[in-house]
Amino acid sequence: MEDTTMLEASHGLFGEQSFTIIPNGLSDDRLDKLREQIAGENGSTIPFDPSKGRIDRLEELTYIVSETSDFPDYYRALDLMIHVVKPTWVTASLSTRKTKNPRTYSPDPALFMSDVVICCGDIPTGDKEAIEGGVLAMGGQIAPGLSKQVTHLIALDLSEERCQLAISKRLQLMIVLPHWFDDCLKVGRRISERPYTLPEPEILNVVDNPPIPAARTSQQIRDATSPDPLNTPVPPTPSAHLEPPRAIKAFAGKSVKLGDDLNVSNKLRDIITGMIKAGGGNVVGKVEQADIYVCTFRQGTDYVNASQSGKDVGNLSWLYYLITHNVWTNPMRRMMHYPRPRDGIPGFEGYKISISSYTGEARVYLENLVKATGAEFTKTFKQDNTHLITAHKNSEKCEAAAEWGVMVLNHLWLEESYAKCKKMPTTDARYIYFPPRTNLGEVLGQTELDRDAVEKTYFAKNRKVTSAVKPAAQSSVVPASSIPVNKLHADVQGQKSPVADKARRTKSAGDAKTPLPPRHSDEKENHTPGSRGAKDRAMAKMHDAAPDIAKFEKEMKRRGGVVHGGRRRTDDEIEDQSKKSQGRDSIASKRSIDEVEEDEESEEESTEAPAKNKKAKKDKLTPIKFRMLVSKDERWTNNDEKASKDKARLRELGLFITDDFKKVDLLCAPKPVRTKKFVAALACAPTLVSTTYLDAALKNNKLPPPEKHVLEARDFEQANGFRMDEAMIRAKQNKHRLLKDWTIFCTQNVAGGFDTYKDIIEANGGKCAMWKGRTTSITASKRPKNDASTEESQNQKEDEGDVLYLISEPDKKEFANWAKFRELAEKHDMIPRIVKTEWILCVAMAQYVHCKEEWELSEEKVKASK
């Protein structure tokens, strides 16, 4: 709560308070204005010298005014209980004539709501209290009424009074659903408001599902994607417009010690030394004389001594950043600016991690972060991967991960494990949550290293100091023989980013000892274990496994790999529920899946060495032209190897065979069938093709025109009274909304299984609830009568609006359920209608709402049929 105590006018609002203003990002005019405002309220300002970078007489201060927490004395100030506030705290305090709560104006990046001022509209009281409490806890502010200071109005509908007032007054604020704050809290970051913004929030649009927009490159990873920078830094010119005014100078009056494990040549060392001196600094030979220590790994006497002495410790990437921008920044602020652990993070050594939906710098950053943890990074996603890190779950890799049982996590798990120097539990809900319609790449790099965890793990006062391994002199590449293999990460072999590193590699020494095999990103390199006995055992195992290895390498040479691998589950048959799925063949574990997103592939190609460009273009996977769902085709039954080969060939042609009935372009079958996949996929308005389409594609090695292989449906159409081509026209009109606003009940023991009809109903925009004869927690409501345009789009002209449907079986055992169902309908003033499964199948296949008397069930009909 804010301090409401008014100070006497004679003392001024800031009487007996002392301030220092950090100049980073502030213009001269803004600095002068802040000093005048503080002095006008009897506050005192202790000058800050940017050339020194440190605050004089820190203990005497009451407040530090700074736009960010990125200044050298930030953590010292916190330890001394000194308030660090943004400049807006000064003006806000003056405007209300009382000192504001410093916490709501803190530049601490952990308080991710610090720039948010919310006002709640007409939302439930419990939700309002929870949101307001959460916003305050995360550094935000609450406004009881609308004002120019409000940044977010929380509402459920634009028709609310406050929404209309905000629109009429043209207030510069965002009107968002309460779901936005909920999702921010779930991931612990401030995510984009775009999918939650009224009047048409994307998260409520379950019908149209456009691709999730690619994330812009996060500012937090700019010039901080790799611990080993590739290019020599270029210092800014004196008139560089990118340099913040009056910024803390990086090297002014400071001494720098370059660590022995930096692995830079004498020529490059001389260049770096010259740049540091040009910036007003000096390079020294002993760490005791230095203010800044630069090294590669978190080990060695110099690293421990420098860290324990409170000196600035960073890696070469951080040093290059300081040279390039001539602005000081905390090396722990960005993951790739701080020396990495030579042995990685405990527990990651056995992991094989791939990433999805990240491009450009974000992809390079995560690739390096994976390697820094000690895990193996794989560009291609395989069945033997242990984890998939993704920005959202709308990708083929995520589909394959779900089938293969590979754990899918967001990047927060990876970042926070590295930040806290320990493997974080994958059961934490924050790491497996993906906000709808949100690309989490937007918040990439916002995690800072946990300084307490780093200190405890690597340079605690009672920690025994071990000597660092020194590389050979006069060399820009560490000889493999000079470092034990278990200490050698793949990205230490020269000053290269991991992507550029693929162009040139050196092999590790074969006789180096290691308790664990080294991890390399190049999947084609082999490294034998360390000891002679281990080598012999390894050779014997390789000899025994030679046939499998040959088969494996043959499979790996096939361009494109497979999309899913292994035999997929058979159709969920409505007519024959007893048919069981077949298991995957062992070959499935040897096949790989390449990400299909063109931007991701093209980004990687652009960062490859020039010599590989032609090969990269040649091997690039063909963009998907059609997504096809196949039902009741027997060509791959009990022949998993043929299925893998055929699907890989088809994928190379641009045809992706999928089981996802929510996103289908072509629906393939020998004839119209009543499998769950076929019926549910019709809601996509796909082109219906015969299995001859696949025959032609595989025979001619190219995709034929779909119109030449139209599905023959004459007999089916005569038996069911509608044409399939007309049904697809209606499906296109419906846009998955045929059953929008419908709640349809279904008994538990219905033929085909409850989940079958649930998927069909949900594919058409409706909701399916299991009926067990209990009404305590179930409600029902009438559907709104549609206007003419909506009736046409949803094809619901025959819907009475007040009919409540129950899908059931013609069985006497269901009579008790029917009686209870009628009670539910009567309670909600609706007409109960109990129907066979035939009703929903015909509605979904014909794509219009209708009902025939022959589909309706009653006790009399069941008794008569017996």
TrEMBL record:
Residues 595-607 have a biased composition (Acidic residues). Residues 519-558, 568-594, 784-798 have a biased composition (Basic and acidic residues). Residues 9-107, 107-198, 348-431 form the BRCT domain. One of its GO terms (cellular component) is nucleus. It holds the Pfam family PTCB-BRCT. InterPro entries: BRCT_dom (IPR001357), BRCT_dom_sf (IPR036420), CellCycle_DNARepair_Reg (IPR053036). Residues 217-243, 488-619, 779-802 are annotated as: Disordered. GO terms for biological process: DNA double-strand break attachment to nuclear envelope; double-strand break repair. This is BRCT domain-containing protein. It comes from Ampelomyces quisqualis.
